[in-house]
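Intended use. Records like the one below are meant for learning the mapping from a protein sequence to its folded structure. Do not use them to infer anything beyond what is encoded.
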Amino acid sequence: METFSTKIVNNIQEWRSRKLEKSAHFLLNIGISANVLTFFALLCGLLAVYFLFNNTFLFLLFALLHLLADAFDGVIARLTTTTSLGKFFDHILSDGLVTILPIIKMGFFLNDLYAYLAAGLDDRAVAEEAMRRDVVVRPLSPLYIDAAPCSGLDIGFTGFDHARMQLAAVRLGEALRQVAKAA
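Structure written out for the chain above:
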């Protein structure tokens, strides 16, 4: 039986394939394979991670190029014969690295802040304490519907210079430590 989230992902893939199919045929006709696009997506994803917290414009540019190349490589792969090496390269190497590396970089940027949430601190209490320090984060535990809630924070940022981001990270760290002391 197909789960609700799997059905949504499949519907999005079908919609994306319909919208990108003509452009994908063009790319195939000029000799660009799914593996070439996967490599390009990986390269753009790695560059996006490199520029994360350093250059917002270049981060966004390479992140968008990564997403676009990743979308096209899937469409082209479905139009052609896929190989097990191609699947590994796309799903494990490219997608896996580009998913985990930003988390690792955020961990270095925010120092020990993730350890507090992993230890099971109440994310709602952390969000309230962060708000007292003029840092807006969103607790994730209230968003769980069918599973046991896990502690986490939605940390969104844009348009701030590096110094303001560092100040926000310090303040968030203070909020996490305060909630940890009270727990």
